[in-house]
Write a structure and sequence with these properties.
The protein is of the alpha+beta class. It has 7 helices and 7 strands, in the order ββαααβααββαβαβ. The radius of gyration is 38 Å and the shape is rod-shaped.
Length: 288
């Protein structure tokens, strides 16, 4: 970074360094102004004494010359100080503009990322993000010898809600179910809208199938609670039931595709047998 005598700056592209240099130059100019003020004060004191005593000492000519020189320096320095302050103002404004632009870019990038990897209706992770998290979860499970579960959740007869009450009511129900799924699972788990009225859940570090069964029952009970506050008709409170297929790692698959497929097949068996949930390796359990 370089500065010229007028206070102009050529920077290396770093606003922070520019501001630091401008502020340093400003302090330097202030010091010069203070020195000139001191010189002028000394010269003026000499003049006042000479006038008061009606005498003209030998140093009066030198003092007058010094005063004239100091006045010229003050003017020059004042010009430089103005240039420096203008540069500082410009850099501050430019930094503010850059900060706003950066904030806008980050906001747009965040929105674009969210739109690319989340379902627009429910805000849940979409298939792409779910698969990525499941891939990461499998790597963790393999490294730490954890068990991991994938649940495939399908809403029974959801089409009736759309046909009878309209798509707005159906969307409200889907958002309600999505929220209930999040509330009945842990922070480290992942809930995804797989499409339509289907959801998939990854349950991290589960101790055994009995614990997973309890979670499945909890999810079923939460889903079938009445859905209130439908926009079309607040007095309508549809109840939705769900069928859940469960796949366990590593018993039912060691890859994303294998586990999701196993859970999907188990879900269809649970739906066929009209039961609440079914493990991929066992016959369906009775509905609770």
């Amino acid at each position: 970074m370089k500065t010229d005598v007028t206070g102009n700056y050529s920077d290396g592209g770093d606003p922070a360094k520019i501001l630091t240099a401008v502020l340093g130059q400003n302090q330097h100019v202030k010091t010069l102004v203070d020195e000139c003020v001191a010189d002028l004060s000394s010269a003026n004191a000499t003049f006042r004494n000479a006038l008061a005593e009606r005498r003209f000492p030998a140093g009066i000519a030198e003092a007058m010359e010094k005063n004239a020189s100091s006045e010229l320096r003050v003017r020059e320095i004042a010009t430089k100080l103005y240039a420096v302050n203008q540069a500082l103002k410009h850099e501050v404004l430019e930094r503010q503009v850059l900060a706003h632009q950066l904030a806008d870019v980050m906001e747009h990038e965040s929105a674009a990322y969210h739109a690319a990897f989340h379902d627009s209706l429910t805000g849940l992770p979409n298939r792409a993000l779910f698969n990525d998290r499941l891939e990461h979860g499998l790597a963790q499970a393999k490294r730490h010898l954890w068990s991991l579960s994938v649940m495939f959740v399908d809403l029974d007869d959801f089409k009736i809600v759309n046909d009878v009450h309209g798509h707005d009511a159906g969307d409200h129900v889907l958002r309600t179910i999505a929220r209930r799924l999040q509330e009945t699972t842990r922070v480290d788990d992942t809930i995804s809208r797989h499409g339509g009225d289907e959801f998939v859940c990854m349950l991290m570090e589960v101790p055994d199938e009995q614990a997973v069964s309890l979670i499945a029952e909890k999810i079923i009970n939460a889903i079938q609670l009445p859905c209130d506050n439908l926009a079309a008709n607040p007095n309508i409170r549809p109840r939705i039931k769900a069928s859940i297929g469960i796949a366990m790692y590593p018993q039912d698959g060691t890859t994303v595709a294998a586990l999701v497929k196993s859970a999907d097949i188990a879900m269809y068996r649970a739906k066929r047998d009209k039961c609440g949930y079914s493990f991929a390796r066992y016959v369906a359990h009775a509905r609770h």
